[in-house]
């Protein structure tokens, strides 16, 4: 999940921003969002039976 | 100097050639248009994503119209261009359904193909002077 998030964040950041600093900031936010959402979803689904 | 209709037609044709190149080799469109940092980044990131699919024993979906979801998966896979065509030609990407990483691999290649389609559209916009 981390590797997947990293690649998608990099591509989206480079695609939507032109300035390298902006790309880095946006990519980091996106990556953090992916990881945070993944952990949150994991905990929300944890009580559900398989 | 204003561009003539002939000039505009030629630049439109060039834009489509750039799109085809961008589809065939991820990032080539941006590289062609002088955005080398972006082109190299797309080439590395998308090719690595595609490589992860093969490493994780994911499948490259065949075009089975009887199975709409498989056909959609194949359409997304096709977005990767030359790496997809090469992998299909060499018999790679058969997939191992019982591997625990199978679905992860599928996700990698589907998303890589869809992202490359976005990259192609971005290259088209740049070529047309919209960005």
Overview of the molecule:
The complex is a heterodimer of chains A (50) and B (131). With 50 residues, chain A is mainly alpha-helical. Helix content of chain A is 82%, strand content 0%. Chain A has one domain. Chain B is built from six helices and no strands. Chain B is elongated. The N terminus of chain B is likely disordered. The interface between A and B is medium-sized, with 10 and 18 residues.
Helix and strand content put the structural class of chain A at mainly alpha
Task: Report the radius of gyration of chain B as a whole number of Å.
Answer: 17 Å
Can you tell me the residue ranges of chain B where pLDDT is under 50 for at least 5 consecutive residues? 1-9
Q: Total helix count of chain B?
A: 6
- Fraction of residues in H or I helices of chain B: 55-70%
Domain count of chain B: 1
Compute the number of structural domains of chain A.
Answer: 1
- Percent range for β-strand residues of chain A: under 5%
**Helical percent range of chain A?**
over 70%
Amino- and carboxy-terminal Cα gap of chain A: 20 Å
Distance between the termini of chain B: 21 Å
Count of extended strands of chain A: 0
